[in-house]
Design the sequence.
């Protein structure tokens, strides 16, 4: 009988590459510095200067379902931007923005009324004393290269800090930067059903 698939949640710190090796002359931190599980790969990526939730698995079918844009699985981000977005900027983010040769899908956008409870970033962002900042929540169903940063810049509010806090029904709650854990059997079952892959109960007791 084949070994059961692995499903890991990892809180990627700032400055860590979303891969297991770095062939540059001055190697930078990678997933290998934190995760010692063989043959798992991240479902999607986070830029080196972004933080937050990664899902890693050796289940290729599930990875495809989560990454394929037509399946529209939501990803939630908390984004600190420079300035205070007005109603026009928020409406543009919600409706979709043309960036280079594509138009982003409509997104859920909410201005947070307080700074979210997140660990301090290391190194901290560079504040400009004369310019306030705002935290917004973005829920996207696509994930193009540096999309969130390009979206906020396009409406005039550059991203200062970007943290992914949710993938589908999975959240970063309970993890600190650099920590990872296995999905619970119930989380695995829910994820399988969400991706239309049928029940996972043949392998796990829920």
Sequence:
């Amino acid at each position: 009988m084949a070994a059961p698939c692995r499903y890991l949640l990892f809180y990627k710190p700032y400055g860590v590459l979303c891969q297991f090796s770095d062939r540059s002359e001055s190697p930078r931190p990678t997933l290998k510095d934190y995760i010692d599980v063989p043959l798992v790969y991240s479902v999607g990526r986070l830029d080196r200067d972004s933080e937050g939730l990664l899902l890693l698995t050796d289940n290729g079918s599930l990875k495809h379902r989560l990454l394929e844009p037509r399946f529209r699985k939501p990803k939630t981000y908390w984004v600190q931007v420079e300035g205070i977005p007005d109603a026009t900027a928020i409406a543009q983010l919600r409706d979709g923005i043309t960036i280079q040769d594509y138009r982003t899908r409509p997104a859920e956008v909410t201005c947070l009324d307080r700074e979210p409870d997140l660990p301090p970033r290391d190194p901290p962002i560079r504040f400009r004393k004369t310019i306030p900042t705002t935290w917004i929540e973005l829920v996207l169903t696509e994930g193009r290269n540096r999309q969130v940063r390009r979206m906020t810049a396009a409406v005039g509010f550059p991203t200062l800090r970007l943290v992914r806090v949710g993938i589908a029904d999975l959240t970063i709650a309970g993890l600190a930067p650099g920590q990872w854990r296995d999905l619970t059997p119930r989380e695995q079952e829910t994820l399988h059903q969400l991706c239309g892959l049928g029940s996972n109960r043949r392998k796990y007791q829920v």
About this structure: The helical segments are 60-67, 87-95, 147-154, 185-194. The CA atoms of residues 79 and 162 lie 5 Å apart. Residues 201-206 have pLDDT under 50 and may be disordered. Residues 1-72+169-206 form a domain with the Alpha-Beta Plaits fold (CATH 3.30.70.580).
